[in-house]
Design a protein that fits this description.
3 domains; 4-stranded mixed sheet; 3-stranded antiparallel sheet; 14 helices; elongated
Length: about 290
């Protein structure tokens, strides 16, 4: 790494021209670093490291930082499909370069941590998601952050003090045990129709299941990342055999079904719950402690 690239990295991956000049680099050296691909020019007077992801560069190019769902994805959180790039800009800022149609500007003030130059801080990211996105999206993204240990429940309480009162109900639904976004979406949607799914329940032979209803119906959510390949197929069949032998009813739903065909998922679950074999199954409660 060249000296100028090291300086840009030390400044958080983004540097203004005057900062590079203050560090002792001449205009010719800066231009040479750009020509040699040691750094990139994001816009007039702003330079970035070559390892900065393209969405962050796009945000810098229009005069802001990656925000909301775009920033959440860059932090490695689960996010639902969305279009465009979310960019946070300073309140009152009115002069921008040409803003592409895929860029969604957020004028957010009072951010907790203005120091990251490529994206807003994680807590600011979650605050933006909780403020601007639908309730179930908020829960799924915050669940992801909690489950990965990136934030605490105390952090979530702090977010609750910074968002509109009408949005607080969503934060009350978060659960750190949820291991995937589609698991969260299924849980939230089932609770919305009066059911009470339990999350990550340990059942027969130490098998842990995604959701449990009525101490009898197991719901497994097969995400795209964790349920592909022969190894996972065999493992899931073995789990199903154990669960069925113990008397549980097991339903599997895919990412596509949860995201794009929820009506069918919901109707299937309700039909199965009405069946006597599911409705009247009696088992010891201590078998289902987490």
């Amino acid at each position: 790494m060249t000296a100028i690239a090291t300086t840009v990295s030390r400044l958080g991956g983004v540097a203004r021209r005057r900062e590079l000049e203050s560090a002792g680099f001449s205009g010719a050296q800066i231009a040479g670093a750009v020509r040699s691909n040691a750094i990139r020019r994001a816009r007039i007077g702003w330079y970035v490291g070559i390892d900065i992801e393209e969405t962050c560069v796009s945000a810098i190019r229009v005069g802001g930082r990656l925000a909301s769902l775009s920033a959440a994805r860059s932090y490695g959180l689960w996010v639902p499909p969305f279009e465009g790039i979310h960019v946070s800009v300073s309140p009152g800022q009115s002069r921008f370069r040409s803003v592409p149609p895929e860029v969604h500007l957020l004028w957010d003030g009072h951010q907790l941590n203005p120091s990251p130059r490529t994206r807003v801080s994680l807590l600011d990211t979650l605050t933006q998601v909780a403020t601007h996105e639908p309730g179930e999206t908020c829960v799924s993204v915050v669940d992801s952050a909690l489950n990965q240990g990136l934030v605490t429940l105390a952090d979530v309480e702090g977010i609750g003090r910074r968002i509109p009162r009408r949005k607080l109900a969503s934060l009350a639904l978060v659960d750190a045990l949820s291991e995937s976004g589609i698991e969260t979406l299924a849980r939230v949607r089932l609770r919305a129709i009066g059911l009470d799914p339990r999350v990550q329940v340990a059942v027969a032979s130490g098998v842990r299941v995604d959701l449990m209803l009525n101490d009898s119906l197991v719901i497994e959510l097969d995400g795209r990342e964790t349920h592909t390949g022969v190894e996972y197929f065999e493992r899931d069949r073995q789990r199903d055999a154990v669960l069925n032998a113990a008397g549980y009813r097991v339903l599997h739903f895919s990412y596509r079904q949860v995201m794009y065909d929820w009506a069918s998922v919901e109707s299937t679950i309700l039909l199965v719950l009405r069946q006597p074999s599911t409705r009247h199954r009696v088992i010891l409660a201590d078998q289902h402690q987490r």
